[in-house]
Amino acid sequence: MASSLTKDSARPGTPGSEKTFFGHPRGLATLFMTEMWERFSYYGMRALLPLYLVAPGGLHLNAGTATAIYSVYVSLVYLLTMPGGWFGDRVWGPRKTVAIAGGIIMLGHLTLALPSSGTFYAGLGLVAIGSGLLKANISTMVGHLYDGPDDPRRDGGFTVFYMGINLGAFAAPLIIGTIGENVNWHLGFALAALGMALGLVQFLIGSRHLADRSSVVPTPLSAEEKSSTLRKAAIWAGIAVVVYAIVGFSGNYTLNWILVPLTLLGVIIPTMVLVRIKRDKDLDRPEQSKMSAYIWFFVAAAVFWMIYDQGGSTLSIFAESSADNSVFGWAFPVSWYQSVNPVLIMALAPVFAWFWLALNRRGKEPSTIVKFGSGLVLVGASFFLFLAPLTIAEGGHKAAAMWLVAIYFTQTVGELLLSPVGLSVTTKMAPAKYASQMMGVWFLAVTAGDATTGLLSIAGVDLNKTNIVALEATLAVLAGAAVWMYRRKVKELMGDVR
Fold first, then answer.
1. What is the structure's pLDDT at 144?
2. Under 8 Å CB-to-CB from 353, ≥6 apart: which residues?
């Protein structure tokens, strides 16, 4: 590492050759802090969201509606990463897009801090839009700091960057959650705005350390494309305004007029994107085969995220009403459960990385398919585990906090098996034509999973009932078993990808 850094610093013009942040380009510190504060604001607000929605001092909604709103919100964040990437590639460039995104997120949190139910949903929308814009572009800028894909510092740089994500996610529920639950909900949302403001200020100050490429618009829109895009956007916006004006003035408007279309879009758009890529006649036979295999992974991932993301909604609402949220007699806010996953990720990710390397040296590392299937089985097992505290609560008792910690632990191990593998297989199996878009396609699996949860909640399905939890757990385990049973077929479709 040291010799390669010396070699890099000897080449004039190498981005970040001054090497001041853990041996990495100085710009990594800027992006690390931006992502840390953005995740601090995002996860802090997310930890408060379902609790605020059901609280008597909040919006006082029923659990089903709260879960639907939460699920729609999370699905939108990931759905909007695709147009977010498009803006970075074709309109503003990554650096400008991230700066604008930070401002939108901060404005969204400030809007959430206003004590009004009307502005609350507008605030959620702004945070979702800003997060989609930022998430799609900030990782791209990390890549720009290095001298191509073969730069030996590149993988380590992304590891440091992702530590920022988990640091922000760990601290947020402890700080924002405590203030929101124990002092004032809206003050908690305001703290999230402050976190994003700090991230934005240091991004603007430190952006001089970023690579010049980050300011470039890679494929700018032509004048004709720009006018066509604006015209189509205006038409769709006009249609939406007319429809909702008619519904509103007729007195028939309910929250479902927003929730139902958004949840349907969360299922329909991922399906349409996959179908469009699969039917593209420009793809050769090996690429078509890999896309057929990828659809297996995509559907399985959607099932995984459908259950996993209920850790912030279904499990949180259950903990609020039916768990003894204390350890050795010391009570803690419900939102603190959301810090369990990031601290476990930081503790276990290095262990998993070492374990896979050790197995690989012996020729015993499990295949991508086996890891993926195991992740699904584990997320299903977490909901089988959830049946125990549900049964305790149905008996009129409070479930111990350690039941919930055990559920989050099982889900985190499943995540470490499935999520890195999913990211890796997405880049390896992407057709050349869609190489830059496929990471957005992977995020659409999260959209599809959360949108499905939203649809179930809107339909009146009580996700805190033992029969529904058992059904979801069984579905995940069966999906994992199916991936494993058809592993030879999927492996054959994957071609040269391992």
1. 87
2. none
Residue 69: CB partners within 8 Å, gap ≥ 6? 49, 53, 61, 124, 255, 259
Backbone angles phi, psi at 152, to 5 degrees: -65, -15
For 453-463, write each residue's pLDDT tens digit: 999 999 999 99
Tokens 């992740």 — which residue? 375
Superfamily of domain 254-498: MFS general substrate transporter like domains (1.20.1250.20)
The token duo for 350 is 């290095």
Assigned CATH for 22-220: 1.20.1250.20
pLDDT one-digit tens code per residue, 338-357: 999 999 999 998 888 888 88
The confidence score (pLDDT) of residue 150 equals 67
- Per CATH, 22-220 and 254-498 having the same topology is answered yes
Tell me the C-alpha distance between 226 and 91, whole Å.
Answer: 9
The CA distance from 308 to 424, in Å, is: 20
Residue 17 has pLDDT above 50, yes or no: no
Distance CA 111, CA 124 (A): 8
Chain centroid offset of residue 257 CA: 25
Mean pLDDT of the region 253-266:
90
Q: CB–CB of 161/21 below 8 Å?
A: no
CA atoms of 66 and 314, how far apart (whole Å): 9
DSSP 108-129: HHHHHTSS-HHHHHHHHHHHHH
Q: Between the CA atoms of 152, 153, 155 and 157, what dihedral angle is there, to the nearest 10 degrees?
A: -170
pLDDT category at 498 given cuts 50, 70, 90 is: low
> 55: which DSSP letter?
S
The tally of CA atoms less than 13 A away on the side-chain side of residue 451 is: 25
Interacting residues of 124 by C-beta distance below 8 A, sequence separation 6+: 49, 69, 73, 108, 112
470 three-class SS: helix
Burial of 275 by CB count in 10 Å (0-12 exposed, 13-18 middle, 19+ buried)? exposed
**Measured between alpha carbons, how far is 360 from 357 in angstroms, rounded to an integer?**
5
21 strand-pairing partners: 24
**pTM (2 decimals)?**
0.89
DSSP-derived secondary structure for 136-204: HHHHHHHHHTSSSTT-TTHHHHHHHHHHHHHHHHHHHIIIIIHHHHHT-HHHHHHHHHHHHHHHHHHHH
